[in-house]
Structure formats: structure tokens, C-alpha cells
């Protein structure tokens, strides 16, 4: 019987690419990726995106979790799926926040995580 534990551990960049591709496939809106490596110990990347409705936010979260498990053998932890106004997906080195637009505007995580020494807006995922 074959042992399925032989999967290699995905690199942070592979996880990041999978997250961005999944969100693009699911038509996420205003995807922003904030590099955290060397600036925070919580993760190397934070990805923030919006869905047009709670249904889309929940669907994006579930599909992303499935892709991370299938492609990388990684079990992502998900919080907030019941209401799907703000869903957090913790894939260890990549943290993903999915919002409804109104909730995203209210919390404004991009501003909170912008680093003053750079003086610029976080890069959009299209630039990654």
C-alpha cells in the first residue's frame, strides 16, 4: 500500500501562488497581497480580498481550503464561515482575509498593516 505522506512540504511562495490563483479563479475583488516576511512573525504573506456577497465569500473560502489540502496537503484553519462577512483562512505562512466590501472598508486592514517606513500602498496581487 502506498504511503501518501510522501508529499513535499510546499514552499511559502507555492502556497502564496495557490492562494492568489484560487482567488483569481473565483473572481475575488480587489485582491491585495502584503509581504510580512521580516516584519511580523505571524506569517510571510497576508492576502486580503473581497467577495460580492456572503455566499461568494464562503464559497471562495471553502474552495481555497480544498485547493490547499489537495495541492499541498495543508489543512487550513478557517474562522468566520458561519456569517461569511469576514472569513480568516490561516495557512500558516499565508494568512487570507476574505470580506464583504462594506466590512472590508470598516476594518481597513490594508491601512492597519501598511508599514510607515515604506510610505506606499500594499501591492495588488496582479503585481505579484
Automatic annotation (TrEMBL):
List the Gene3D superfamilies hit by this protein, alphabetically: Beta Polymerase, domain 2
Sorted keywords for this record are: Cytoplasm, Repressor, Translation regulation
Which example biological process does GO assign this protein? negative regulation of ribosome biogenesis
Question: What's a Pfam family this protein contains?
Answer: RsfS
UniProt feature coiled coil, ranges: none
**Where can this protein be found?**
Cytoplasm
Chief localization: cytoplasm
| Cellular-component GO terms for this entry | cytoplasm
An MF annotation (GO) of this entry: ribosomal large subunit binding
Function recorded in the entry: Functions as a ribosomal silencing factor. Interacts with ribosomal protein uL14 (rplN), blocking formation of intersubunit bridge B8. Prevents association of the 30S and 50S ribosomal subunits and the formation of functional ribosomes, thus repressing translation.
Query: What does the annotation say about its assembly with partners?
Result: Interacts with ribosomal protein uL14 (rplN).
Query: Which family does the UniProt entry place this protein in?
Result: Belongs to the Iojap/RsfS family.
The name this protein carries in UniProt is Ribosomal silencing factor RsfS
Which species?
uncultured Sphingomonas sp
Amino acid at each position: 500500500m502506498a504511503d501518501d505522506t510522501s508529499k513535499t512540504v510546499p514552499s511559502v511562495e507555492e502556497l502564496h501562488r495557490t492562494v492568489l490563483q484560487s482567488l483569481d479563479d473565483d473572481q475575488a475583488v480587489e485582491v491585495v497581497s502584503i509581504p510580512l516576511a521580516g516584519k511580523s512573525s505571524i506569517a510571510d504573506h497576508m492576502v486580503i480580498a473581497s467577495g460580492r456577497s456572503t455566499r461568494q465569500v464562503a464559497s471562495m473560502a471553502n474552495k481555497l481550503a480544498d485547493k490547499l489540502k489537495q495541492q499541498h496537503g495543508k489543512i487550513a484553519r478557517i474562522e468566520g464561515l458561519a456569517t461569511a462577512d469576514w472569513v480568516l483562512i490561516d495557512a500558516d505562512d499565508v494568512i487570507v482575509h476574505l470580506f464583504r466590501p462594506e466590512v472590508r472598508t470598516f476594518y481597513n486592514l490594508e491601512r492597519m498593516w501598511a508599514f510607515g517606513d515604506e510610505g506606499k500602498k500594499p501591492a495588488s496581487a496582479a503585481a505579484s
